[in-house]
Amino acid sequence: MIRVWQGDITTLDVCAIVNAANRSLLGGGGVDGAIHRAAGPGLLEECRGLGGCETGRAKITGGHGLPAHHVIHAVGPVWHGGGQGEAELLAGCYRSAMDLAEAAGCRTVAFPAISTGVYGYPATAAAAVAVATLRDWLAGREGYEVTLVAFDGATAAILEKALEA
Ligand code: AR6
Fold this sequence. Notes:
Blueprint: E1 2-6, E2 16-21, H1 30-39, H2 41-48, E3 58-62, E4 70-75, H3 86-103, E5 108-111, H4 123-138, E6 145-150, H5 153-164
Parallel strand pairs: 1-6, 2-4, 2-5, 5-6
Antiparallel strand pairs: 3-4
Helix pairs in contact: 3-4, 4-5
Bound molecules: ligand AR6.
Protein name: Macro domain-containing protein
Organism: Pseudooceanicola nanhaiensis
GO molecular function: O-acetyl-ADP-ribose deacetylase activity
């Protein structure tokens, strides 16, 4: 099951929240900054041991001070116009994150709109990739609750529309 929820992902009491990170995995602005602030310094300390992460992939840590038990740090692509494999890299983030969630025994997972902030990926195109990739991954699996988190109303409307398609 996939649902849309509007608000701050750091407040969600789910098994895993996904972070829209960069390849260093050492924090940044946007949702990454919000997650590190809410989790506390233990998260950065754990991230230092991960050795970064490739674009289109993800790595998992504990949730530290967050209500969520785990943080899955996914590195989305920077938007360069769509001709540089951005859609496949973004899909890779969603697939890798769900694979890690499954391996950790998580059935409740929340995603921000990866790459659609600082990285400039158009929100409508990103929502279509997110929904299609998650539907593929969830096909034949039972009991998962995936939340697509919109920080603002415009993103919520875009995600709702992608789910209706
Ligand atoms: N809860 C949910 N969504 C949020 C929150 C929040 N607390 N804060 C922002 N968003 P962005 P990116 C939304 O820029 O484009 C960082 O510096 C935001 O409105 O956070 O993947 C990293 O370190 C937007 O819809 O991530 C990287 O360097 C979405 O989250 C770089 O930014 C993603 O926006 C990654 O850029």
